[in-house]
From TrEMBL:
Membrane-traversing stretches: 6-27
Sequence ranges of Pro residues compositional bias: 70-84
Region (Disordered): 35-85
Record's compositionally biased regions (Polar residues): 35-47
Keyword Membrane: yes
Name of this chain's protein: Endolytic transglycosylase MltG
Keyword list, A-Z: Membrane, Transmembrane, Transmembrane helix
Length: 158
């Protein structure tokens, strides 16, 4: 046997050994690890009915609203009667991960924040913001203009 065959044999043996070691590390050692992996993957791929989705969406929106700091009223020195503040409509939408601009426009139209979906979509395209819409909860007070809606959708959420 010459040296060349010896080195080829050692090299092939090392490669086969490394492949076997990788195969051993990939296989779970017990069924508990396999079950926990299956449960984790099944939770992330769960399909919700429309009712379940709406219920989860409402709880998520409520959690996000609860996280926002509530303003504390300062005590006034003069107890003069103040006129009743105008009650403004507050609209909250949740933009899900991987929601397209079309999906967001449909949500805005369904909440009656925008009247003309096509005009709003054209404005997004014109400003090149169709891929810049941020995911998460967006809150709109009163009847915002198209510019205010777009600014709210593309600004980073705090």
């Amino acid at each position: 046997m010459n040296r060349k065959q010896l080195w080829i044999g050692i090299g092939v043996g090392m490669i086969i050994g490394a492949l076997l070691l990788q195969l051993m590390l990939l296989v779970p050692r017990d069924s508990e690890a396999m079950n926990s992996e299956n449960q984790a993957s099944s939770n992330s791929n769960k399909v919700y009915s429309e009712e379940e989705f709406n219920q989860k969406l409402q709880t998520r929106l409520q959690e996000e609203l609860d996280k926002q700091p509530k303003p504390t009223p300062e005590p006034s020195v003069n107890p003069t009667p103040t006129p009743a503040p105008e009650i403004s409509k507050q609209t909250v939408i949740f933009v899900a991960y991987r929601a397209t601009s079309d999906d967001v426009v449909k949500m805005l139209a369904s909440t009656e924040l925008i009247n003309d979906s096509d005009a709003f979509m054209k404005e997004l395209v014109k400003r090149k913001l169709t891929n810049k819409i941020r995911t998460g909860v967006h809150t709109f007070n009163g009847s915002p203009t198209i510019d205010e809606i777009i600014d709210n959708l593309v600004k980073p959420n705090n």
